[in-house]
TrEMBL record:
Keywords: Signal. The lineage of its organism: Eukaryota, Metazoa, Ecdysozoa, Arthropoda, Hexapoda. It comes from the Eukaryota. Residues 1-17 form the signal peptide. This is Uncharacterized protein.
């Protein structure tokens, strides 16, 4: 497992970002295919990508439409990449007017993903209280660092308390 600590400013506040990568060989699935993504339903939305999305989880979130400012949430995204190579994690907030603001854009060190291996990217984030009362789309994507190919993208419509 590889880790990186990233401190990012969101407007005036600060969010802590911890990123970890984990790989598992899932070739044992053979011809049965990849199972449906458990719990992948609204408010989650698949926003594209060449890889196969396997699972999305947010630890610390009860599944309603609200996130609490100042609370730490751990986001886990498991996918099977379509091609090999190093990847980057990108996350942005998009507001109703169409304005998007990047909050995480980091190359994942020693992240040479391989097709046939499930890869889990795990990171933590904390919404800032400057966003209180806002409805936003939280868009998270895994992108190849070299050619910008999007492996997976997941969007989530949320409100900040």
């Amino acid at each position: 497992m590889y880790k990186v600590l990233v401190l990012l400013a969101i407007f005036v506040g600060v969010a802590n970002c911890y990123v970890a990568i984990e790989r598992k060989d899932i070739s044992v699935l053979g011809g049965i295919g990849i199972p449906e993504i458990p719990g992948f339903k609204p408010p989650f939305r698949d926003c594209g990508g060449a890889g196969t999305l396997i699972d999305v989880r947010i630890i610390g979130w009860d599944g309603d439409e609200y996130f609490t400012p100042g609370q730490l949430y751990t986001y886990e995204l498991t996918f099977m990449p379509s091609t090999a190579g190093p990847v980057s994690l990108k996350q942005e907030y998009c507001f109703n007017g169409g304005f998007c603001m990047g909050i995480i854009d980091v190359d994942l060190p020693i992240s040479n993903v391989q097709p046939g291996f499930a890869t889990t990217v795990r990171f933590s984030f904390t919404p800032n209280d400057i966003l209180s009362g806002q409805s936003i789309e939280l868009k998270t994507s895994i992108v190849h660092s070299t050619n910008l190919l999007v492996e997976v993208c997941v969007a989530l419509e949320i409100k900040i308390r």
